[in-house]
Amino acid sequence: MNLNSPKRVEMEDAADTRPILIVPYMWIGDFVRGHTVVRVLKQRWPNRPVDLLVTSLCAPLVDYMPGVRAGIVWDLPRNRLALAKQRRLASELRARGYGTALVLPRTWKAAIAPTLAGIPERVGFFGEARFGLINRMRWGEKALPRFIDKNAALALPDGAPLPPEWPVPQLVVPSEETARWRRANGLGSRSAVALAPGSVGASKRWTYYPQVARLLIERGLDVWVVGGPGEKGLAQDIVTAGGGKVRDLTGTDLRNGILAMAAAGVAISNDSGLMHIAAAVGTPTMGIFGPTSPYLWAPLNGLAATVVQTKAELACQPCQRTVCTMNDHRCMRDIDAPYVADLAHRLLVTQPSVR
């Protein structure tokens, strides 16, 4: 069910205007994929406003998500209940008059504030014995094949079959905003390749970004490194390899990463949140996969190239581990830098115009 698909979720009561709250997963890539849930809800109830609970880290994403009325920015600690903060959040939610809450995470903690707020319908899968907190309990999550299936199924009527395709996530970034961002950072107007060398979990990190940067620079291309503060060290290695001709755009503000991915002509990324951002804004994206499965974790938007090693079949792949414990990381080491650079160059020169 993509943008041009004739198959849509059946519209329900068009007169229903009760707001809906989504409590999503807060990892960046998962948050981006959560926009599919928004789109399904808007097909089902076109006149019900949809809000997202969001962390301060992910908050900039909401500004570019069509169909989202507002983001409720509230940072809750990951490792404790923080009941005082939950009560204050519940007071905020109660004032907004939500009729339905979709609680995507299966944790007990994720359902506390919607319950304290008295939201009448609280939809979620069984998990951590949330009886009473989730009053529209769904079952069968483990039988659903992909993460997106588990999340978007909650936006359908209970028991409804999954569609053959889900609507893809969208991040709509105005071209005027990317132009201002380019000027503010002194980046000129040439097409650039954006590199996203970071990821959650060391095993998902392809280590040949410095070599790719050097090869792209030798071809006269602009190269940017995009990521969070944790990628500063990786960015410095890439800048050094590029002879100082690579721009380090890593930092603490996710909006900077969104705009960089929107402005780039091609993005090369590990399996990470920035890969999902680049795909959702419509930038041709090369996703490098080793320990994780593209079927399970690639963006619904589709990738310009799904890059995997092809030299030998590895029995351990995909292992889904955060640290490699077998085969000395061959699933990533056997992906050649010249191949990735050649592919990126071909993608860039075939783009119809500078982004």
Summarize this structure briefly.
With 355 residues, this protein is of the alpha/beta class. The chain has 14 helices and twelve strands. Strand 2, helix 3 (59-62) and strand 3 form a beta-alpha-beta unit.
Summarize this structure as a short list of keywords or feature phrases:
alpha/beta; Rossmann fold; 355 residues
Major sheet: size, sense and barrel closure?
6 strands, parallel
> CATH H level of the largest domain: which superfamily?
Glycogen Phosphorylase B
Our count of domains comes out at 2
* C-alpha Rg (nearest Å): 21 Å
- What is the overall number of helices? 14
The low-confidence parts are 1-6
The CATH topology of the largest domain turns out to be Rossmann fold
Q: Care to count the β-strands?
A: 12
From the 3D coordinates, which CATH architecture of the largest domain would you assign?
3-Layer(aba) Sandwich
Q: Write the H/E string, N to C.
A: EHHEHEHEHEEHHEHEHEHEHEHEHH
| Helicity range | 25-40%
What is the typical, i.e. mean, pLDDT? 90
Measured between the Cα atoms of the first and last residue, the distance is 27 Å
* Protein structure class: alpha/beta
Please report which band the strand proportion falls in: under 5%, 5-15%, 15-25%, 25-35%, 35-45% or over 45%: 5-15%
Broad shape: globular
Widest β-sheet, arrangement of strands: 3-2-1-4-5-6
CATH class of the largest domain: Alpha Beta
